[in-house]
Amino acid sequence: MKTIDQILRTLVNDPQLVSILQPADVKALRGLVSTIDNHVFLTAGQSQFCLTLLNTIKSSIRGIEPDIYDALLTPTWSKPFRNIEYIKKMSIATDDNTGSKHILIESNYSNSFRNFMLNLYKTVPMTMITSGKEFHSPLTEHHIVELVNSLSPLGFDISDEILEYYDTICSWDQVEINNQFTLTNIADDAAQAIIMDDIGKNTNLDSLIVADRRLRHQYQIPQRLYDFSADPSLTEIIAKRSTPKLWINNTKYTLSELIASLRELNRLPILFVFENTDAIKTCASLYGLSESLVENNITDGVGIYFRLDNSSGKQFNTFIADHNYNQQLDKDLTIAGILAGTLPKFFLKSDWEPKTVIAINNNSLGVPSKTAVYATRCDLIITYTKEQPIMLNSSRW
Prior knowledge:
Shape: globular
Largest sheet: 6 strands, parallel
CATH class of the largest domain: Alpha Beta
Distance between the termini: 65 Å
CATH topology of the largest domain: Rossmann fold
Number of strands: 11
Helix content: 40-55%
Radius of gyration: 28 Å
Oligomer: single chain
Number of helices: 18
Strand order of the largest sheet: 6-11-10-7-9-8
Mean pLDDT: 87
Low-confidence stretches: 393-397
Strand content: 5-15%
Order of helices and strands: HHHHHEEHEEHEHHHHHHEHEHEHEHEHE
């Protein structure tokens, strides 16, 4: 008697198949044969799907394969089914490029797990890798606790290193910890000096710049300073964000207003990340940025560190030269611009560091790339688009 996989090959090789079955059924049969031919064979789940499909269409394909009824009564296969290695792991990994550590979450792909992680992203910022099979999250105490609490019930194998951190963090007295890191209670003189140098020694502790810098310096502020007013300004929205990543609606706030708010918070220099797939959109973003800089009296210290092909971007390249947007990357630079997914090597060698990173009219900072990795050194990463990216935290305006 023929095996089921022999019958599958007979079916997909017969030209009559496309006229007998629905396109979706033909596609499914061909997909099963493709899996078999790739020398990985089918899983038990795929075999059940196959038998269900064949039982549904057996009357239609009997003319091509007369043995189909007998074969389905006692189905046999030419090989054993492939076993699936189920992966559910959480560990600490090191980035090969930067040497920094992050939380690594690995799992087999499924829509339900992907949706679970997207929902979890509202409280734990993450970068999704390899189509939902791998996620990276910054290594912080909060993220460790949230992820262990969320993934343990799902049967994840959590590394001893993370569990040791988790137990230590959970043993802390929350009130004591919060009080220790309240801005006015920080005892370390060096830490106090760094913070005061950043926010200004004479700055009112109720000011927005104090709220803004809490993510960079990891201090606590009174709850009233976290709360938004009834009609918050863009500056307040930025300063009181809950995580480093923030979405700003480009139909609600102009780029000029965004730059003005960042100046108010002493958030310059800025790194702008441009669209890398559409020359017309890239040009439009540069022209809009140039107008906004002029409106904010920024006419010097601008460096755009990429060029477009002259066949489609000659006007873009000329615009940069005409406006002197080719300044050297040094400590005096105010505005830098690079193409999404790229990072010129001299950025890594320079002492220049942005206080803000903005993806202008694109969602590039939500996907793995050299640009996205570089941006993580900054405590304010803005996606400035019309629509909110899927992989973004709950801070959205």
